[in-house]
Amino acid sequence: MSINLNKRSIMTLYSKSDDVYSHRVRIVLAEKDIIYESINLDIVGYDSLKELIEYNPYLTVPTLIDRDLILFKSEIIMEYLDDRFPHPSLMPVYPVAKGRSRLIIYRINRDWYSLMNYILNNDSKYVDHFRNKLLNNLINACNIFMEMPYFLSDTFSLVDCCIAPILWRLQKLGIKLPKEAFPLIDYAEKIFNRDAFQASLTDAERILRM
Predict the structure, then answer these.
(1) What is the average pLDDT across 146-168?
(2) Is the torsion defined by CA of 35, 41, 44, 47 positive or negative?
(3) pTM of the full predicted structure?
(4) CA angle, residues 18, 123, 133, in degrees to nearest 5
(5) Is the pLDDT of residue 8 over 70?
(6) First-last CA distance in the chain
(7) Where do the structural domains in the chain lie, given as residue ranges?
(8) What CATH topology corresponds to 95-194?
(9) Which 8-state DSSP code applies to residue 122?
(10) What's the confidence (pLDDT) of residue 57?
(11) What value does the mean pLDDT take over residues 31-51?
(12) Which whole number is the average pLDDT over 110-132?
């Protein structure tokens, strides 16, 4: 299928204002201070939706357009941005370390995001079970957050970009971290205070922790 991308002179991100996967891409964009056009599908009209389905047959967000390149799925977009704009680097240089980071992101998606999605998208007697399971998963990971300034790293990375949005939404998920989870609480506040994280927030996301 032929797609005309000439109308997009700068990088464009299709996203939603409270979409957790869009949020982690916006964190990367902010960390690298990338200029881009944001199209919020919560407020745009039919023409923009029609335009997106021309680029992405699944009509999912985030979707990134950079000149003649179209990408969807947040992990793919995040790694592309890190390669395209290498400073500051958000992934390790060496293959072994890079492989470990990818595996960590996979496990975060599988162990944390899957539970979050179930909690947000279901209204059943099982939601409390999955809420408690996510809380336990987070508490069990607390010791990891004591080892290094960031998640198993001395520097902020794509792994942190994946963790931060879910921590920001804990109140929305009905989860309150206990005092004994102080390593995770301290880590979260450190991430939330980063200028790039604050810049990544939409108005809809800011009110999640008011």
Answers:
(1) 97
(2) positive
(3) 0.93
(4) 80
(5) no
(6) 46
(7) 95-194
(8) Glutathione S-transferase Yfyf (Class Pi); Chain A, domain 2 (1.20.1050)
(9) -
(10) 93
(11) 86
(12) 92
Q: What is the DSSP string of 82-117?
A: HHHS-SS--S-SSHHHHHHHHHHHHHHIIIIIHHHH
pLDDT of 147 over the 60 cut: yes
Alpha helices in the chain (DSSP H): 20-31, 46-55, 74-84, 95-108, 114-121, 127-140, 144-147, 158-168, 182-192, 195-200, 203-206
128/122 Cα distance (integer angstroms): 11
Strands, sheet with 12-15, edge to edge from the N-terminal-most edge strand = 37-40, 12-15, 63-66, 69-72
- Residue among 148, 208, 150 at smallest CA distance from 175: 208
Residue 178: what residue type?
P
Partner residues linked to 171 by β-bridges: none
Distance CA 101, CA 206 (A): 28
Task: Compute the CA torsion angle 61, 175, 185, 97 (nearest 10 deg).
Answer: -40
Instruction: Indicate whether 1 pLDDT > 50.
Output: no
3-state secondary structure of 70: strand
Place of tokens 């942190």: 160
Angle of helix 74-84 versus helix 20-31 axis, rounded to 10:
10
d(CA 167, CA 178): 14
